Amino acid sequence: MTLIVVRDLTKEYDGRKLRALDRVSLDVASGEWLALMGPSGSGKTTLLNLIAGLDTPTSGTVVVDGAPVHALDEAERARFRRDTVGVVFQHFHLIPYLTAVENVMLAQYFHSLADEAEAADALVRVGLGDRLHHRPPELSGGEQQRVAIARALINQPKLVVADEPTGNLDADNEAVVLETFQKLHAQGHTILLVTHDPRVGALADRRISLDHGRIMSAGLEMDFDNARWKRGERQS
Ligand SMILES: Nc1ncnc2c1ncn2[C@@H]1O[C@H](COP(=O)(O)OP(=O)(O)O)[C@@H](O)[C@H]1O
Ligand SMILES: [Mg+2]
Q1: Ligand 2 centre and the CA of 44: distance in Å?
Q2: pLDDT in tens, 86-108
Q3: How far does residue 118's CA lie from ligand 2's centre (Å)?
Q4: Whether the CB of 45 sits within 6 Å of ligand 1
Q5: 87: domain CATH number?
Q6: Domain around 76
């Protein structure tokens, strides 16, 4: 089954002549882990935000789980995000004076289902059962990001989007966070993960690469002989 259908998606930010995203088309299967790659400024965050209903396109369509995200008004987009999407950012965006379990409960509150046992259970699932009552400043970067992941998962979203989720972490913390994404993938979540790190991208089922707002048709392929990533052909 296809979860995400993107067609000719284009984004021009106000006052900018260049298209941040230029007629991008893309299908993502339900349960697939797709890595969005490409250099800084290539449009990765823009594409992610449009798919997650965090921003609206200039033209083109994006349908997620049957919802025409591009055509929703602001209230409908908020509902779409609440029901369908879990978002993980590079900077964890936790409330510093709330404990781990309270941070997750705050997200539940927005879904009108605050339940401490369930919030604690979400933290146990990301391996933080012994950190429930710690506040973000008392947690490592990887632990903070796992709190953010537990928070993103609280509404059982069909789609998890993550924008450079390990961009702020050292190698050890990166490894635990990536393990968490591998677990989510094994549980059947559809994952859209932005990264410019080929080692992170290699964990995904598939990689696509953006360049100046356009998709490279063949994506990135590992050139094992030279231990580097090769560019695919550019779409016409
Ligand atoms: N809010 C914005 N206003 C104006 N230009 C923006 C905005 N966000 C991104 N851009 C521009 O759009 C292009 C793509 O940005 P972005 O999607 O953030 O790229 P990436 O995530 O790949 O680094 C860049 O040229 C960037 O400067
Ligand atoms: Mg970005």
Answers
A1: 5
A2: 999 888 899 999 999 999 988 77
A3: 32
A4: yes
A5: 3.40.50.300
A6: 2-231
